[in-house]
Amino acid sequence: MALALSLGRRGMGQCAPNPAVGCVIVQGGRIVGRGSTAPGGRPHAETVALAQAGALARGATAYVTLEPCAHHGETPPCAEALIAAGVARVVAPFDDTDPRVSGRGFAMLRAAGIAVTTGVLAEEAARDHAGFLIRNEVGRPFVTLKLAASFDGRIATASGHSQWITGPQARRAVHAMRARHDAVMVGAGTARADDPMLTVRGLGVRRQPVRVVVSRRLDLPLLSQLARSAREVPLWLCHGAGVDEAIAAAWRGLGARLLPCDVVAGQVDPAALLQALGGAGLTRVFCEGGGALAASLLAAGLVDELVGFTAGLAIGAEGLPGIGALGLARLDEAARFRLIETRALGGDVMHRWERG
């Protein structure tokens, strides 16, 4: 199952809205097939592993990181494929929460005489499938908030200069994290100040994440790198009501997708924003700021994971903070996250936290 989970992780960021599943088929103590969900979501992991195993799948045990699907979509159900292949046993962490499956896959297998074991590495699988599960349960994607900051928590000098606070190893790690998410998201201020591409570079990915920019007024430069590349790499703009229709038409003409969202207290409502992204099929979103967007997500309790990169330099109080005002009067009002990983990357430190 640990191997199946590692195979499934290869599909993170590549197969939304489908889950990134891994499958390992074992016959007589020997691995005869392995697979992961392909980019775009098909074929499914079980189909890939069964094709590799061939006739050796008969009487074998299949380790799958999520309940095999039971519904007819663009492909037949994986539960049916496992039955047809003659698999004797299926091991999985837990039920698929998709209402089209939700126990039906296991029921099909048991009805065909296949032994089903669940609960294996369920905690690890729940972490890997968090985006898929959260979207099924509440309609929004899993959100990772990333900050690269100085030792004193600043993301730029007072003049806005920020390239580069962290070194090349940390920046490469950020690209790898982008690749494991369905989308990279920034606020309008970051898009204007940095003119970013928001793509994964240097890793040879087959499917770039969607670039999401949150801009209430849609006041973004039409000559930016994002605008020039909107037809090559997906660009979604989340905005409020009443934007200038000529500007909206210009962005559509460049190839961007526009997602209108409710506005609360003068900014795009973070809950409505994430519902819109979940409704559009995203399961994992990597937010890279800026400060106002980060603060709104934290204040609304919508951040599932924090990733920090801390560099060994100090910028001072006049520098720009990574997170905007949260209006907290007491420490117990702040959301607490639990440290799950820390490591050195060149001259920087990476620390990763999950919601407590």
Task: Flag low-confidence runs.
Answer: none
Put simply, the count of helices is: 12
Radius of gyration: 22 Å
Mean pLDDT: 94
Helix content: 25-40%
The ordered H/E elements are HEEHEHEHEHHEEHEHEHEHEEEHEHEEEE
How many beta-strand runs? 18
The structure class reads alpha/beta
Distance between the termini: 26 Å
Shape annotation: globular
Strands of the widest sheet, in order across it, are 11-10-9-8-14-6-15-18-17
Major beta sheet, specifics? 9 strands, mixed
Q: Could you tell me the strand content as a percent range?
A: 15-25%
What does this protein look like?
The protein has 356 residues and is an alpha/beta fold. Helix content is 28%, strand content 24%. It contains twelve helices and 18 strands. The strands form four sheets. A nine-stranded mixed beta sheet has the order 11-10-9-8-14-6-15-18-17, with helices on both faces. Helix 3 runs parallel beside helix 4 (104-111). The longest helix is centred in the middle third of the chain and has 12 residues, at 168-179. The protein is globular, with a radius of gyration of 22 Å.
Offer a concise description of the structure:
This protein is α/β, with parallel strands linked by helices and 356 residues long. The protein contains twelve helices and 18 strands.
Any key phrases for this structure?
356 residues, alpha/beta, 18 strands
Topology of helices and strands:
Blueprint: H1 2-9, E1 22-27, E2 30-36, H2 45-53, E3 61-64, H3 78-85, E4 89-91, H4 104-111, E5 115-117, H5 122-128, H6 130-138, E6 142-149, E7 154-156, H7 168-179, E8 183-187, H8 188-194, E9 210-214, H9 225-228, E10 235-239, H10 245-254, E11 257-260, E12 263-264, E13 267-268, H11 270-279, E14 284-287, H12 291-299, E15 305-311, E16 320-321, E17 337-345, E18 348-355
Helix pairs in contact: 3-4
